[in-house]
Amino acid sequence: MPAGSNEEDSVLSYQRPDEEAVVDQGGTSTILNIHYEKEELEGHRTLYVGVRMPLGRQSHRHHRTHGQKHRRRGRGKGASQGEEGPEALAHDTPSQRVQFILGTEEDEEHVPHELFTELDEICMKEGEDAEWKETARWLKFEEDVEDGGERWSKPYVATLSLHSLFELRSCLINGTVLLDMRANSIEEISDLVLDQQELFSDLNDSMRVKVREALLKKHHHQNEKKRNNLIPIVRSFAEVGKKQSDPHSMDKNGQTVSPQSVPTTNLEVKNGVNCEHSPVDLSKVDLHFMKKIPTGAEASNVLVGEVDTLDRPIVAFVRLSPAVLLSGLTEVPIPTRFLFILLGPVGKGQQYHEIGRSMATIMTDEIFHDVAYKAKERDDLLAGIDEFLDQVTVLPPGEWDPSIRIEPPKNVPSQEKRKMPGVPNGNVCHIEPEPHGGHSGPELQRTGRLFGGLVLDIKRKAPWYWSDYRDALSLQCLASFLFLYCACMSPVITFGGLLGEATEGRISAIESLFGASMTGIAYSLFAGQALTILGSTGPVLVFEKILFKFCKDYALSYLSLRACIGLWTAFLCIVLVATDASSLVCYITRFTEEAFASLICIIFIYEAIEKLIHLAETYPIHMHSQLDHLSLYYCRCTLPENPNNHTLQYWKDHNIVTTEVHWANLTVTECQMMHGEFTGSACGHHGPYTPDVLFWSCILFFTTFILSSTLKTFKTSRYFPTRVRSMVSDFAVFLTIFTMVIIDFLIGVPSPKLQVPSVFKVNRAQGT
């Protein structure tokens, strides 16, 4: 938007009547040159504006580049405008100017720090008591106060309207820019800003009083509401100060302590922070969020709002030097470096909000962040915004919904290419590709020595070995323990039962559980990968089935052959470790990993459904029942008509005389033990008909899946505080299994259970 636009409906359309762009006479010595600068102003590529500094301070002089000196020398020799104009445009792009600014020498007062940005809004109307309310904050990504003001949203990538960015640019053109202001309180800052407004605009006394009153209103932060009913947290300032580069000594009531009590804390020397007028009440500080603030971070406060007595906006961008801890202004007690103030007439609150979001978001940009610290005049800030606009991607309004929040990327793209000199705007320089150093880190590099990789792994692990155990002594690790327990036990027992069926009991649940326990303990103690889940998988089950069938067909001892295969596998693993063959892992693609993971999932799902289908055969549905004949249904134990050899041998070994046994009086367990037969219309395939088992198993099956999925996604719901939701989500699987087991026990339906012996012994005595 041009600086002289006359649009009445834009918050930034005003132009101060007594202010014109100050033109550097040294660079525009002729009438023709002055005319060219006005054309450039209307094109709004480069706008030279004198920087208005606080009274009594000298502004910094901006050094000219070598190209600028050469052009001025050319003018002295009579060079014409037509010859110099295109050269100036070709070599003075926003990107090049930003690169020049970032290349200037740093002094102690302009060293960039990490920024925490906070957006506060106010609406002052006659007769109403107003206060500043925190609506959003930026650490790296944007977080908004959700509707109702009860909690913060998840961090997300801020999406801005292009119009608000242009309005922000116009704000910096038309507003007050005060760089390196020295002030110790918000009162001093307000007075200096309003002094500048009076110098260059018709700000009357009554309006000044109203604006100053608005700027000095109390700031209400979102975390204060939820802490009103809590016991104030007493914590020494030394503990809080561990996260900050400039700790302020505090007593337990949050008041400042004399410097003599803490001689090592010198705020003026370390960061120039003056806390003389800035006591901090630690009971109002969100200590959990404070831990996320980087060490040495500073604050950037964006204040936007509506004041009913204003007829035009008041805009100011302030950079404090040194940074000052302003009590009650920021959510966390860190020194404030930047302030952006935008107060305007009532009715355009949403417009002001979007401009404030644009200012806060652009302050989180890595390049503009450094420019803001090193800027020496208004044009430097404008160049930073222009360079930011050059990198902006615009989405068509009909193809994207701005209300959709974009999740933060796992890896933030590097911005180093924006800092490289000699790159034309909009183009990316061609960089020679670096030599490829391998597919992965040093742990997968071949050493060329016998057991070289193992030795290096031990050296890397040894310094952190004991600390890993100390780190595990945390409540947060309890969820991981329980999850790993369920994650390890479930497949081991499940596949143990499947192996028992496939191998006729030669390798069953107890053997699988014992083997998984021993290998898991050994692997966790010596491999340093405690979170790796070891156990039987789908391919192992397929292999065991094939091997058992092979042994059965050729009359081989299955367990003996299985032991030989295990020893041979161990020998091959030792050879692979000795020759650093593990480096070949880096050639396993993501496709291969996903293929095996998918195979395991498919086998799990298939086996679960197959088990459910088999239940229908074991516990069939008694369909078409004749209710009038229920009294005639029976299932009794009888003597087998054609006993097999195994049954006859059992009777002989136990001296059982079948004619003396009262078969009809035997219980189900006794009948099965005596190898009797069940006869009658109420008998199933394996004994008396048991009702409800199939349907109850289906209920358990689907309820467990649905409940586990629901609890896992409970973390993103709107119920309960964040900590409770996170805990429920972390313990989702354990809570589901525990709940369903208790329900199954209370209902009492004889659903099938996995039989695990209470003592460790070989299931088949013959061991074949």
From TrEMBL:
Composition bias type Acidic residues, residue spans: 1-10
Molecular-function annotations in GO: monoatomic anion transmembrane transporter activity; sodium:bicarbonate symporter activity; solute:inorganic anion antiporter activity
Gene Ontology BP annotations: regulation of intracellular pH
Gene Ontology annotations for the cellular component aspect, listed alphabetically: apical plasma membrane; basolateral plasma membrane
Entry's transmembrane regions: 478-500, 512-535, 555-579, 591-609, 693-711, 731-749
Predominant localisation class: membrane
InterPro entries: Band3_cytoplasmic_dom (IPR013769), HCO3_transpt-like_TM_dom (IPR011531), HCO3_transpt_euk (IPR003020), Na/HCO3_transpt (IPR003024), PTrfase/Anion_transptr (IPR016152)
Residue span, Band 3 cytoplasmic domain: 113-402
Protein's recorded name: Anion exchange protein
Organism: Rousettus aegyptiacus (Egyptian fruit bat)
